[in-house]
Amino acid sequence: MVPDFQLTRVKNAVVVAAKSITDPSNLSPQTPDPKSPASTVTTVAREIASAGGEATPIQVDVRSEESVNALVAKTIAKYNRLDVVVYNSGAIWWASVANTPLKRFQLMQRVNPEGLYAVVQAALPHLYKSSPLGGGRIVVVSPPIYSRFFRGKAAYAMGKVGMSVLTKGLAMDFEREGRKNMAITSIWPAVVS
C-alpha cells in the first residue's frame, strides 16, 4: 500500500523521460504538441512553467552512471532536496525475437531496467531525507506482469517487466528496513473504452 500524500506539498521532483533537449536560447514561440517528435525536455519545462510551476531541464543519458549522478547532483544543488522521482524513460522496439537485433535488445535493457536502477540508486540517499513527506516517492512507468504483454515483443517485455520486478523488490526492501514513509509504485497507461 502506498502511503497517502498530497502532490501539492511536493516541491522538488525529478522526472526522467525519453525526450531530447533543445537549446533554451533558441526556442520557437509556439510550444509543440507534447506527443510530437518536436517535443523536448525544454518543451516540458515550458509547460510546467506556464502552469505556474518551476522546472529546470537537465539533459541526462540514463545509460551513464556519471550522467545520472550529475542529474541528481544538479537537482540537489538547485533545490536542496529531492522529494519524488518519476521514471518514464524508455526504449521501445516491438518485434518478435527473430526480428529484434541484439543492439536493439541491448539498448532496451540499458535504458529500461538498468537506467531505472541507476536513477533509483543515485536518488535514494536524498529521498530518504525528503521533507515534508518524511520520505520520498518513486513512480515507475512499467507494466503489470501478465503473459499477453509478451506477445510479439518479448525483448521489450523483458526490460519493462524487469522494471516491475525492481518496483516490487524495492518496496519489500522499504518494508523490511522499516522505512514506512518511503513509497515506490508502478503505473501503466491503459485505454478504457
From TrEMBL:
It holds the Pfam family adh_short. Gene3D superfamilies: NAD(P)-binding Rossmann-like Domain. Keywords: NADP. It comes from the Eukaryota. InterPro entries: HSDL2, NAD(P)-bd_dom_sf, Sc_DH/Rdtase_CS, SDR_fam. This is Hydroxysteroid dehydrogenase-like protein. It comes from Trichoderma ghanense. The lineage of its organism: Eukaryota, Fungi, Dikarya, Ascomycota, Pezizomycotina.
